[in-house]
Design goal:
Layout lengths: L16 H6 L14 E7 L5 E7 L1 H4 L4 E6 L21 E2 L5 E7 L2 H10 L1 E6 L26 E4 L2 H6 L3 E9 L11 E7 L2 E6 L4 H12 L6 E4 L15 H13 L3 E4 L5 H4 L6 E9 L5 E13 L21 E10 L12 H19 L3 H7 L17 H12 L16 E13 L6 E6 L5 E5 L8 H13 L6 E4 L16 H22 L9 E6 L13 E13 L5 E11 L6 H20 L31 E5 L18 H4 L1 H13 L10 H10 L10
């Protein structure tokens, strides 16, 4: 692509694609240096208690072991903004898997052997890791993740529900879920005098630098954090994690470069997880299918280290016109690892429960579930009363129905079945908020006719380099091949993390502004450029984060077709379709990848991904990819993603909305609703594994299901 007329929106190939497929792209563990050491953490073996003794002698006696850090000898850290990073500072053990030691050695193998040789004794305390809706310690917090009020509503939802012609009162349960990016959380650090450089697998270098400065009591300008390539994060790398802190600590103590690559089996305990959520929904409707009452109440867990409340009831404040509405969050502190962000936090589990309940209401009304959603389309955002900057959910539903062939659907459960296979189709809506944060960027015109754009964006596999280059070329009015870009270096300037589907909007706004200013400077310049070129800066503070009079959201519609094997209980998704309204699409190729990735991740949530907290030992029973099952290519026969051309002038200079998370939001509900259509059975607990489905078939006396006995 060399022209400018279609550069924004064009399906441009990733700029770093060749580096990745040829193996020349370097990730955080691959920055070698003379004398580099490796470190391996020691996790706590009790669910709650305190360390009473540490015998490091067996580890130090092993060949290659350089040091063993524990709370007894580790350097003292400053007060962290995130208490989960107060590492090796105390004998207290808040949950199983909490790091109580770090072994540094010449090789990874020696570090691992050393960690196994450390002898730790504990004084165990009684623990509680079991979430229940009636837990006596559950409370209503001041706010949920993202600063959303824990409680919101209007009207008299209880009274309206009681007098409704049709009522649905249901409970849904979603287990803990884990991010499990392909590249584990890893950092390599080394000191040069009083300065430290860290290569970290992170979704944002600015946040890592700020926290390291606080912990090690250093000015931020003495810390450089780079995240050149990141092998996925899905939210788990959105804040600084233990690997960065431990790598910097070990490097300072040993005087050598140190790499800390967290073993995958340790990740569920120390890098966050999607907390389990227990949902109760009460939907009331009149005879015409218009909602009269909507109540969504959520109970979740948090750790005793740090409060994190999954904002799963928030989407109900956005979706449907209900004259009476209440949403409520409760949280229970338990002796569990601290939950955190996982792709579309809040919206993903919340919309699964809401869209499943809406499907139940459609069945109770005898109404088409697509038409029920359209009938309850609001004129303004129900919670705030703000007008939408754009809302094309109805168009997504109608276009998705057309592409999917929805009009041919027989609403009777199992009507399209053949032999032992039950077939069904389902639909769900999706929403995700438009978020944007301030960012800095520079653009420089060079004497060779090229342009250098610098923005501290982090490319976690989404194509940030490519899309930011397209934004720059479009603003400069030059061919794309004349734009070079530097990203993912804290020295470039402040930038928000890659998260909340806000990265491209935030970075792109600053890039656009810098390039527009540069164009103005070039127009005033005559003659050849100086050797250093001509530059322009931008900082979108005060504009990107200004309060908007509009409710800004992306929307989408998901459709799924499934077959259910009544002999084995296995569910297969034969078709998965998403249609989205997400502003201006800036790169058709990378956007489609993001949408399809989200759809597939939602399929995993629906069918395969499951985690349980062992009540006796206090840890996650599924802690690796052998036991925590994510979808493979063979799990989806057909996945399609499409979008509407949406012109929204109330967003940012590019007119774009985030797309990294809207794809997952309705996917699980569409699959679950399709399973109900296939079987006539409503499964209200995820995932829909063969054992759970087969048990349901047997309990409901399905004749084909009897073959499974």
């Amino acid at each position: 692509m060399t022209g400018t007329e279609t550069v924004l929106g064009a399906p441009v190939e990733r700029r770093e694609g060749r580096e990745k497929v040829t193996g020349t792209a370097r990730y955080a563990a691959e920055f070698d240096a003379p004398g580099r050491a490796q470190a391996w953490p020691v996790p706590a073996a009790v669910a709650r208690g305190r360390v009473t003794g540490v015998d490091t002698a067996p580890a130090l006696a092993l060949p290659g072991v350089l040091a063993v850090l524990t709370h007894e000898n580790a350097p003292r850290l400053g007060d962290p903004d995130d208490p989960t990073l107060s590492l090796l500072q105390s004998p207290h053990v808040p949950h199983r898997g909490w790091f109580v030691g770090l072994v540094v050695a010449e090789t990874l193998e020696a570090a691992r052997a050393g960690a196994a040789a450390v002898r730790v004794t504990y004084e165990a305390e009684n623990h509680d890791v079991t979430l229940t809706a009636s837990h006596p310690e559950a409370y209503v917090p001041e706010s949920a993740n993202g600063g959303f009020p824990a409680v919101s509503g209007h009207g008299d939802p209880d009274g309206a529900f009681a007098s409704s012609a049709t009522r649905v009162d249901v409970e849904y349960r979603i287990p803990p879920l884990h991010n499990h990016p392909m590249e584990p959380h890893t950092s390599t650090a080394w000191w040069e005098g009083d300065r430290v450089t860290v290569h970290s697998s992170s979704q944002g270098t600015s946040a890592v630098r700020t926290e390291l400065a606080r912990l090690f009591e250093l000015p931020e300008d003495r810390i450089t954090v780079r995240s050149e390539h990141v092998g996925g994060g899905f939210g788990s790398k959105g804040t600084p994690r233990p690997d960065a802190v431990l790598a910097v600590m070990a490097a300072r103590e040993t005087g050598r470069p140190v790499t800390v690559a967290l073993p995958r089996r340790y990740l569920p305990a120390v890098i966050g997880h999607r907390a389990p959520t227990l949902h109760r929904l009460r939907l009331g409707a009149d005879a015409d299918g218009r909602l009269t009452s909507l109540v969504h109440e959520v109970t979740t867990h948090t750790s005793r280290v740090k409060e994190f409340v999954e904002q799963a009831a928030v989407p109900a404040r956005v979706m449907y016109a209900a004259p009476a509405l209440r949403t409520l969050h409760r949280v229970t502190p338990l002796d569990v690892p601290t939950p955190s962000w996982m792709r579309a936090p809040g919206e993903c589990p919340g919309m699964y429960a809401l869209e499943s309940a809406v499907d139940e209401l459609a069945v109770a009304l005898g109404m088409d579930p697509v038409e029920l959603r359209i009938r309850n389309e609001p004129d303004t955002e129900p919670d705030s009363g703000k007008p939408f900057s754009s809302r094309h959910l109805v168009e997504c539903l109608r276009e998705g129905a057309r592409r999917f062939g929805w009009e041919d659907r027989d609403p009777r459960p199992g009507a399209g079945s053949a032999g032992p296979l039950l077939a069904g189709t389902g639909v769900a809506a999706a929403t995700y908020p438009v978020m944007v944060s301030p960012c800095a960027a520079t653009a420089r015109a060079l004497p060779d006719g090229g342009f250098l754009v610098r923005v501290n964006a982090t490319d976690i596999g989404t194509g940030a380099r490519t899309v930011c280059s397209q934004i720059a070329a479009d603003a400069l009015g030059v061919p794309l091949d004349r734009v070079r870009i530097d990203v993912a270096d804290s020295g470039i300037g402040f930038a928000p993390m890659a998260g909340g589907s806000s990265g491209t909007a935030s970075w792109g706004w600053a890039v656009h502004e810098a390039c527009v200013r540069l164009t103005g400077r070039l127009a005033e310049h005559s003659g050849p450029l100086p050797d250093e070129g001509i530059a322009a800066d931008a900082d979108t503070s005060g504009t990107a984060d200004a309060e908007s009079p509009f409710a800004r959201h992306a929307f989408g519609a998901h459709f799924a077709e499934v077959t259910v094997d009544t002999v084995t209980g296995e569910v297969r998704v034969t078709r998965l379709l998403g249609v989205f309204a997400a502003g201006r699409i800036l790169n058709a190729r990378t956007a489609r990848s993001q949408f399809i990735g989200g759809l597939t991740m939602g399929l995993g949530m629906a069918l395969t991904e499951d985690s349980t907290v062992d009540p006796a030992f206090g840890d996650f029973a599924e802690s690796d990819l052998a036991s925590y099952h994510v979808p493979a290519h063979a799990d989806v026969a057909s996945v399609e993603a499409h979008w509407l051309d949406e012109d929204d002038t109330h967003l940012n200079p590019m007119g774009s909305k985030g797309i990294g998370e809207i794809g997952i939001v309705g996917s699980a509900a569409a699959v679950g609703n399709a399973v109900h259509h296939a079987t006539g059975i409503r499964f209200r607990e995820l995932p829909l594994t063969p054992d759970r489905v087969l048990t349901g078939l047997l309990e409901h006396g399905h004749p084909a299901g009897m073959l499974g006995t």
